[in-house]
Design a protein that fits this description.
heterotrimer, A alpha/beta (368), B mainly alpha (273), C alpha+beta (336), A: 368 residues, alpha/beta, 7-stranded mixed beta sheet, 4-stranded antiparallel beta sheet, B: 273 residues, mainly alpha, elongated
């Protein structure tokens, strides 16, 4: 991956948002940092503030507390450099697809990439079918990934968009394509995609993932995708944020997050001294997911949890402490200890279930 | 009225008016249907005025000459046919600021905030301020241009055959349509509508609020037109008072428009990042 | 809904009731606005009928006693308050049909089709035709109830203030607020709005179309109202002194040749005495003069005819809406 390890794509400090009519915060003391160049999955159950977080990052609403910085500046200043696709994929219903793409071009005169936008909207076959100037675009996506990006002409053409179609007449998935085409056409440095896959069929999903990965590979674009379906993004993302309780509860490279946890099975026994995320026993047998910061003593069968197990365990146990894996600055040296709980403050994380004042821990979790 | 807002809305990326960007095209394309309806309405109004003055007036005079010796009612009847049409035109065009307010509150701002297409624009490199500036500037320019043409044509049509018309300069619609107040009311509808749209953020309630607010503004001014300029001596109102009264009312209406527009910008900026 | 069979359990109301209830829930804010408007109008008209009129009349009398000029040009804050209330309530009541049309086109139908909630209803075991029937029937009920309250109150206010305001029974706004035509136009607004909503399928265009069409319908009504009931024509001296409060429509002469000429004022300035008229007619070679008018007694026939015509337009619009919906949806179960 062409990773631009230096910059920060997205950063929040003590971010909070409450809507007037609803009681309580949707987002509270949310702090995190996303390095540039990542493909980041923002996962979490419905109603945990994923959309709110993305809307705040896109500068569409103003935070109640805290700050969010996008591409090193405020969302308003970075407006031309990021793209955002809202969950509902709003598009002016009275326009045609072509007029909608023209709208994107008119609003982004300085940086509009018509070829890419039309490829996303009309499919990779569009160039071959409609004109020679698009001929070289089909092969541009994700050369280094073995996703099958070319599902065959007959499959793609079915349900394909035509420039003269009205937005009003489109299906949900077709609207998503147009919305994504507007996002791609901007040539953004950061893409904020709210549930981009929800309306897409498996074929279109593969196509979109391929396009996203290609974009990231070719231009170093940072991509943040929210989803409540965890499996959908597994294997695609190299960064993960788990949202819960209005904040980021797990953040980092999925592999590191997995490595930071161990699944224990064995006779029921005292686990104090360990950071237990979840434990449940059947009779004398106990199964527990613990943080690996203190390796378990003998007598346990250990196994590596799957990503889904890890996320579900955290969702089921809101009192489990937050965890951010340390990002390597340059190389992996000195990282054997692996991830540390919280910000490396063992006092906070060692005490199982002590997360009462998430406000404080949340802020400390931010790395400069 | 919006140029002040526009220059303030300029961002470091592109200085100056948003009119040299793709925004005007976007606004015109998004609201093409409304533009067509407005254009047809205005052309029909202008065409009717020209037709009445140039074609109908002669026929009316012939009919009146046939009335000779039959008393005043005959003349009056014929004249009503002529003046009535012109009066309809000025009435409809004058009160079209209600339609402007409804359009601004509903289609221009409220609906876009309601269904999220405004946010689409805001993440397509257009800041909310510039978005609103363009949304107001393009219709404002059209309203000023179209309104000016109408006022000039109406002034000509109204004076062309005074003997055939039963109205006078104090009639509500005539008073407004013979000067810049007509344009001011249009701009006021635009500003008030935009404010209602930004605050209410839902198209239909915004339409209701905007029309209600415009009724209050317009009704109170119509009722208090008499007080806009002191009467002469013993409560006499000479026609020479037309321009002072008219300009005072224009100023008030424009003031409302500017305040509403300013508050709309302020409310939008406060809500968005 | 109600049958002779044992009453259904409370938990499972009749489907029609359930549909009505969900409709009321969906448009609760509109219902509250309607109630508020009706109550506010009723309160204003009751004030104008009672204390408003009393105070203004007493004030005018007082002024007349001190200044003879004020008897001919009554004024004062109370009279202007009273007349403003009458004018505003009459304006609102006479334009209620436009409000109903705007709401029906935009919120009741257009918005539901635009954002797809209509389809939600149609897949919740409600056939499109029943959905549309409920959309027409439930608001019609509330419109009827509101009109049944507002119209009598308006009549009280209007007729009570005759001596202070010189109100006419044929005044366009007053006529549309003073009888069953008020209800007929409101129901017509509902049907026209629903049809506009179905035709455009979009909120704001439906609003524009519904208001424009309804405005045109009311203006046509105002224009052709005198033709909706046979007029009375009188000749001779009677034509020179028409009954009190008559709506004069035309006036003319009959020549010695028997030719009938309309829109002619000859001899109309005769002072009403038969002798004076005769000499004028003889002088001008005319046989007779005539006048056409609606006496005040035509108020009710005119109201009823116009109501019938407007209701027919409403029925036409409602039928068109049903036909349109039927052709669009799978109600027939097969392609037509």
């Amino acid at each position: 991956m062409n990773r631009d390890g230096e910059g920060t794509a997205l950063e929040a400090v003590g971010l909070g948002k409450r809507y007037r009519r609803r009681r309580g915060h949707v987002l509270r003391d949310c702090s995190f940092r996303l390095p540039a160049g990542r493909i980041c999955a923002l996962v979490g159950p419905n109603g945990t503030g994923k959309s709110t977080l993305l809307a705040l990052a896109a500068g569409l609403t103003r935070p109640t507390e805290g700050t969010v910085r996008v591409l090193g500046t405020t969302p308003a200043r970075a407006r031309e450099r990021f793209a955002y696709v809202a969950q509902a994929k709003p598009l002016p219903p009275q326009l045609t697809v072509a007029a909608t793409l023209r709208l994107g071009a008119e609003l982004n005169r300085a940086r509009w990439d018509r070829t890419t936008a039309e490829r996303i909207a009309y499919g990779p076959e569009y160039g071959r079918a409609y004109g020679p100037e698009y001929g070289d675009t089909a092969g541009r996506t994700a050369p280094d990934l073995d996703l099958d990006l070319d599902p065959g002409p007959d499959l793609v053409r079915e349900g394909a968009l035509r420039p003269g179609d009205r937005i009003r007449s489109l299906s949900g998935g077709q609207r998503t394509r147009v919305a994504l085409a507007l996002a791609f056409g901007k040539r953004p440095e950061l893409m904020l995609l709210d549930e981009p896959m929800a309306d897409l069929d498996p074929l279109a999903r593969r196509e979109l993932l391929g396009a996203l990965l290609g974009e990231a590979a070719e231009h170093g674009t940072t991509i943040v995708m929210s989803s409540h379906v965890i499996a959908e993004l597994e294997g695609v993302c190299d960064h993960l944020f788990l949202m819960g309780g209005g904040r980021i509860r797990l953040g980092g490279d999925p592999e590191r997050l997995l490595a930071a946890h161990t699944l224990l099975t064995g006779p029921a026994r005292d686990l104090s001294g360990h950071t237990v995320v979840e434990s449940h026993g059947t009779g004398r047998q106990l199964t527990a997911l613990i943080r690996t910061d203190h390796p378990p003593t003998d007598g346990w069968e250990t196994a590596a949890p799957s990503l889904e197990e890890l996320l579900l365990a955290h969702l089921r146990n809101p009192e489990a402490p937050d965890l951010f894996t340390e990002e390597p600055e340059k190389a992996d040296e000195g990282d054997e200890a692996g991830p540390t709980g919280g910000t490396g403050d063992p006092g906070t994380t060692a005490a199982t279930g002590v997360t009462g004042e998430t406000g404080e821990t949340g802020e400390e979790n931010v790395r400069p | 009225m919006n140029t002040g807002q526009l220059s303030r809305a300029g961002l470091p990326f592109r200085a100056g008016l948003p009119l040299n960007t793709g925004l005007p095209w976007t606004v015109l394309r998004l609201h093409r249907a409304a533009l067509i309806v407005w254009g047809v309405f205005l052309l029909a109004a202008l065409g009717t005025l020209v037709w009445e003055v140039e074609i109908t007036a002669d026929a009316v005079r012939e009919r009146i000459s046939a009335c000779a010796g039959t008393g005043g009612l005959c003349r009056l009847r014929v004249a009503i046919d002529y003046g009535g049409t012109i009066s309809w035109v000025s009435t409809l065009v004058y009160y079209s600021f209600f339609a402007v307010a409804a359009f601004a509150a509903g289609a221009l701002v409220g609906r876009e905030l309601e269904n999220g297409t405004a946010e689409l624009a805001w993440t397509q490199s257009v800041s909310p301020t510039r978005w609103l500036a363009a949304k107001l500037a393009v219709p404002a320019l059209l309203l000023v241009a179209g309104g000016t043409v109408f006022v000039l044509v109406f002034r000509w049509a109204w004076t062309a055959n005074r003997d055939l018309m039963g109205d006078d300069w104090t009639f509500d619609d005539v008073f407004a349509a013979r000067g810049p107040a007509l344009v001011a009311y249009g701009l006021c509808g635009l500003g008030v509508g935009a404010l209602a749209g930004v605050v209410v953020r839902r198209s239909l309630p915004a339409v209701a609020v905007a029309c209600g607010a415009m009724y209050l503004v317009n009704h109170n001014l119509e009722v208090h037109r008499e007080d806009l300029w002191p009467k002469v001596g013993d409560g006499v109102r000479p026609e020479s008072h037309y321009w002072p009264m008219h300009l005072v009312e224009t100023g008030i209406v424009l003031g409302v428009a500017v305040v509403a527009t300013g508050v709309a910008f302020w409310a939008l900026r406060r809500r968005t990042g | 809904m109600t049958t002779t069979l044992p009453a259904p359990p409370r938990s499972a109301p009749a489907p029609g009731l359930g549909l009505a209830r969900s409709l009321l829930r969906l448009h609760r804010s509109a219902l509250w606005c309607w109630l508020l408007l009706v109550v506010a109008l009723a309160a204003a008209m009751l004030w104008a009928y009672g204390p408003g009129y009393e105070t203004a009349a007493a004030d005018v009398q007082e002024q007349c006693r001190t200044d003879i000029e004020a008897c001919h040009f009554p004024g004062g804050p109370w009279l202007s308050r009273y007349s403003a209330t009458v004018a505003l309530t009459t304006l609102v009541v006479s334009f209620l049909p436009l409000l109903v049309a705007a709401w029906a086109g935009a919120a009741l139908v257009g918005r539901e089709l635009e954002n797809g909630t209509a389809h939600l209803a149609w897949t919740q075991s409600v056939s499109p035709a029943r959905w549309l029937a409920a959309k027409l029937a439930v608001p019609a009920l509330f419109v009827t109830v509101g009109a049944a309250l507002l119209v009598p109150l308006h009549r009280l206010m209007w007729n009570g203030g005759g001596d202070l305001l010189w109100t006419d029974w044929f005044d366009a706004y007053g006529f549309r607020s003073n009888g069953p035509v008020a209800l007929a136009y409101a129901l017509c607004g509902l049907a026209v709005g629903v049809l506009a909503g179905l035709l455009t399928g979009r909120t704001l265009p439906a609003l524009g179309v519904a208001v424009t069409v309804m405005f045109a319908i009311t203006q046509l009504g105002d224009q052709y109202r005198p033709s909706m009931w046979p007029t009375v024509t009188v000749t001779g001296a009677r034509s020179l002194s028409l009954p009190d409060q008559a709506l004069q429509l035309d006036r003319g002469v009959i020549t010695d040749d028997g030719l009938r000429i309309g829109n002619n004022m000859a001899c109309s300035d005769a002072d009403g005495s038969v002798a004076d008229l005769r000499s004028c007619l003889a002088h001008s070679d005319l046989a007779d003069v005539w006048a056409t008018f609606h006496p005040r007694s035509h108020f009710w026939p005119l109201q009823l005819t116009e109501s019938g015509i407007v209701l027919a337009v409403a029925a036409l619009a409602a039928t068109a809406a049903f036909v349109l919906l039927h052709r669009r949806t799978a109600a027939a179960g097969a392609a037509v």
